[in-house]
Amino acid sequence: LLSLNTAMRMPRAPIEAETNAEERPLHLAAQGGHVEAVRCLLEHGAHPGKSNYLGQTALHVAVTGGDTPAALATVRLLCSREWRLDMNAVSRAGRTALHDAAAAGHNKVVKALMDAPNVARHGGARSANLIARDRDGRTPEQLAVASGFDDVASLIRTRIVQLEAKAALREQEEKEALRTSIEQLRVCGGGPRSGGGGPRSGSGGGVRMGVGRKEGEGGEDIEGGGDAAG
Which domain holds residue 131? Predict the structure, then answer.
């Protein structure tokens, strides 16, 4: 009881207190796979985007735990929508957490990162970019190959192919929808009126020209879009 009373009277440490390595409590909890401590810190205002002296966020250090249940649970917690984590935050080496997980051959962690709710697009502000390059110009897939983890590289390649296929399908659907809209415009106001001469200025011909320009705008940058598989 004496020790408990003493502990209760001690001032609370700041939730963003730093070690000499600029690591915060969230970094230490994430690195150790202490998922409940991570949850508690996040719920009390710890910022998941803060970095240590190497530029690593809590997610970067969490993936170093490998494919253990504790590390996987921590990664999934940090990546949940509730915390609005930037999946593309880079360390001083220019690496995302996906780069680090792929280079280390953590198959399950790589899959968890790609399956996370935040991973909604092929690239983007808060989604894990599967083709991002580090300071040496290498993608996560290339790092996995260089490290001899062909299974991890194959996992990433398969997901990229799936995303590209979905993006291509969506682009085709958008073009078909645009063609349908153009045909409807032509039917509703296209041809010359009876008794009139040629098309009047600003009538159907002008409308079709404007739509024609819009048709040329179709398509989507695959590196900035594409829904994640599943």
Answer: 2-159
